[in-house]
Write a structure and sequence with these properties.
Blueprint (H helix, E strand, L loop, with lengths): L1 H4 L6 H6 L1 E5 L4 E2 L5 E6 L1 E6 L2 E7 L3 E3 L4 E4 L3 E6 L1 H7 L5 H20 L3 H17 L3 E5 H7 L5 H13 L4 E3 L4 E5 H13 L3 H4 L5
Antiparallel strand pairs: 1-8, 2-7, 3-6, 3-8, 4-5, 4-7, 9-11, 10-11
Length: 206
């Protein structure tokens, strides 16, 4: 997604009003309004203590009602509401605002709309990410299968192989060990869903 909004950062209005901010690992932050663009790093976003989504470099969010947590040193661009009001429809900024508001439901829908076993695997890893409070961890195939035993082990194996090929997770067939990385998952989902809005967001650079 980053390559789609990056040209916007070169506009005079952006440079006058946007703020480049740095957050350290485990630091939390929030804004009352505006848009957050993740320039580099990894964040999770929470509403009422519930995880909403994970964002990496290139992700953008409507900041309202979200509490962010940085999982590593993270750089963000913050676009305050005055900038958005000033820009209006100029440079296609309304597309940027529209995407930021739809990011959360689209992210959730992407997980739920996967083939059932793939959806179960991704949902399980996201639940463990919250429970373990770790951005990266390992499971064996047997440990994962025990958590979603309503699917056959063969189905779980096949789905893990597919997700590993797509770089959503890393699955070693040699020892049946699965590595989950929140950063890899965020980049995988962003890449998959960004194509939906490529045309409208590219209008910013026209």
């Amino acid at each position: 997604m980053k390559e789609l909004w990056l040209p916007f950062t070169n506009t005079l209005e952006f440079q006058e009003h946007a703020e480049l901010m740095t957050f350290t690992k485990d630091e939390t932050f929030y804004f009352e309004s505006g848009i957050v663009l993740i320039d580099d790093g990894l964040v999770s976003c929470h509403v009422d203590n519930d995880l909403s989504l994970i964002g990496a470099d290139g992700s953008l969010f409507d900041a309202k009602s979200l509490i962010f947590k940085a999982w590593e040193k993270t750089f963000i661009w913050y676009l305050p509401a005055p900038l958005l009001r000033r820009m209006g429809d100029k440079e296609g900024v309304h597309n940027l605002v529209s995407w930021s508001k739809q990011q959360l439901p689209i992210w959730r829908a992407f997980i739920l709309n996967q083939e059932s076993v793939r959806s179960a695997i991704l949902s399980t890893f996201i639940d463990l990410f919250i429970y373990k409070n770790r951005a990266e961890f390992h499971l064996t195939l047997d440990e994962l299968h025990n958590r979603i035993a309503y699917y056959s082990k063969e189905m779980v194996y096949t789905a893990c192989s597919s997700l590993s090929y797509e770089k959503a997770i890393y699955f070693s067939r040699r020892n049946n060990k699965i590595t989950f990385s929140a950063l890899a998952l965020a980049r995988y989902i962003d890449k998959k869903i960004s194509a939906t809005y490529t045309t409208s967001i590219r209008a910013m650079s026209d």
